[in-house]
Amino acid sequence: MSEIAQEFDPENYSFVIGIDFGTTFSGCSFVFTGDGTEEVVDITDWPNHGSQYSKVPTALLYQDSGHNLIAWGDDAINDPDQSDNPESFLVERFKLFLDKSVESMPELPFDLTAIQVITDYLTAFYEYTKTVFEESFPDLYDPSKCRYCLTVPTIWNDMAKAIMRKAAIQSGIVDPYDHPNRLMVTSESESAALYCEKSFPGFNLSHGDQWMLCDAGGGTVDLVVYAVDESSGERQLCEVTMASGKSCGSTFLDANMEILIKEKIGHLVELNGSMMLQLMHQFIEDMKPQFDNEEDMFMPLPSSILEVIEDLDSESEIVDGQLVFTANELREQVFEPVVLQVIELIEEQFQQSSSEIKALFLVGGFGQSKYLFQRIEEVFGDRLEFIHVPPRGDLAVARGAVIYGLNQQKVTKRILRRTYGIWSAMMFDPVLDSPEDQIVDGDGMSLCNNRFFAFAKMGDAVGIDECVCSEFKWYRSESQSLRIYTYGNYGDAPRYIDDPDIKLMCAFDIDFPLDIERNHEEGIPALVGIYFGSTEMRVEITIHDSMFTYTSAYDCLDNSYEVGYSEVPLKRSSMSLLVNKYKMSTTYIENFARLRSSVVHNSKKPVANI
Ligand SMILES: Nc1ncnc2c1ncn2[C@@H]1O[C@H](COP(=O)(O)OP(=O)(O)OP(=O)(O)O)[C@@H](O)[C@H]1O
Ligand SMILES: [Mg+2]
């Protein structure tokens, strides 16, 4: 059901909270706007958190066939029994389940689904942060006065973003009936870029200068190039390349290391879960950050391993109870295969940009790696004026999310990573189109009813307030949904909607104004405007004098995720293209007074059916 929109007023909220849901660690920063300051504060005190790292492990410990979540964060990882207890199951890196390109993900235990574990984690995370706020702001904290900015990897598709929104709602962070703006979903790289821009005193780049952001985390590495845009008088950023990224973060070093350890001592000792956990802990905490490709490295072996190795003295790989790794071995088998993927991604960004890129900012946990820095300097040093690793790069995303929450106008343009369009009937071409798809509309016009009409194309630069509009006629009254399709490859989009490379992304049910005669012979004029410039797409459909607003947060479909989505049969479009596509500024659209006399939005629509 639709209802008259409540305009969103940020003034109603006194906390802006940034949540960086990471593959290995998650972070939280916030600002209390109630006292007029904009000082960003981090939550660094997590339950039983022994590490210097300011974020909390993204980990859950389940028991009893997945029905019982017994610990989260450090408690999940540090539970002494968990690794060898068949009754309990540690779940980590589950964010990667939402990246379809990652192969070889382990099965989730029991009958858990990706969205359920993400929801469980966010619930625990949220409940804990509430206690921190209650203690720190006993008189000022009120959950209904908080709004949130949740970050997602830049390379995720719209479906994965919608799943995150759904998980945030299920975990109680926001209510399904809240205005969508209360929970902003934005990209990790953009948040990190905003942090770099705001916090780096040496950020002396001027109008038009380009710089690259590389956020190398535990799971993904995200990259994008920005240009400094001072045309409005204040410094803003505009994207100049299409963001790229890959799941090749620091945990892929861990996976390589695990293989290397097994290669070295797997034949001497049967490595059980807790042994491997201890060894990997040493690698992650001590060896990985220190590796500089010069010194050989030593890993002390626990007594549980040393005791079972029969002839310890004859093992040349083990010296004084320590397993020896040569620098060469670590480079070739652990670091270089992953680092090379990062280098390739940086090179791709250089190729995409036609102008000089002056600087590279390296953030994220993996972004602190000495070896990664060395290699980037070696390969790209002569093309860059400087490479900078900002302080607290691990918190760049959470802090940047807060900066985004405070001002969504800081990035003025974004580059589309996909082509978006709808299924529509367009002028029939007897040479190209099949007679089977030919229909004649109420005006006697011959149309092909199988066309993909691209609203905006991959690589297009779209302003954040820019609306791409087309006028349509709605013919078949029985179909009331507008379906948005995407095409993710380079080059021209296919002509026909049933091309296998065109994917259905979402469907919005349109609540036709009640006074409309449904079987209108001449078609019902409808103006469809899509805003692509925000992280989540927004669609406005104007029919007669009513406007309906939808965000891609709703009604996303993708049955390839096993997260409980019901299959929705594809229906033919009921739209035919009336007027060519044109771009309009928001102000211009506002001049459509006749069409805009009332504004309706569907925030009451239950999100459960996405
Ligand atoms: N100096 C270092 N060298 C290499 N890896 C490091 C270093 N410091 C931390 N890491 C690794 O970085 C990862 C954590 O980084 P970060 O917090 O940025 O990732 P994340 O946010 O969990 O992941 P993602 O952003 O990919 O979802 C962990 O895998 C950690 O072991
Ligand atoms: Mg991260």
UniProtKB/TrEMBL annotation:
Superkingdom of source: Eukaryota
Gene3D superfamilies: 3.30.420.40, Actin, Chain A, domain 4 (3.90.640.10)
This protein's name: Uncharacterized protein
Annotated source species: Phycomyces blakesleeanus (strain ATCC 8743b / DSM 1359 / FGSC 10004 / NBRC 33097 / NRRL 1555)
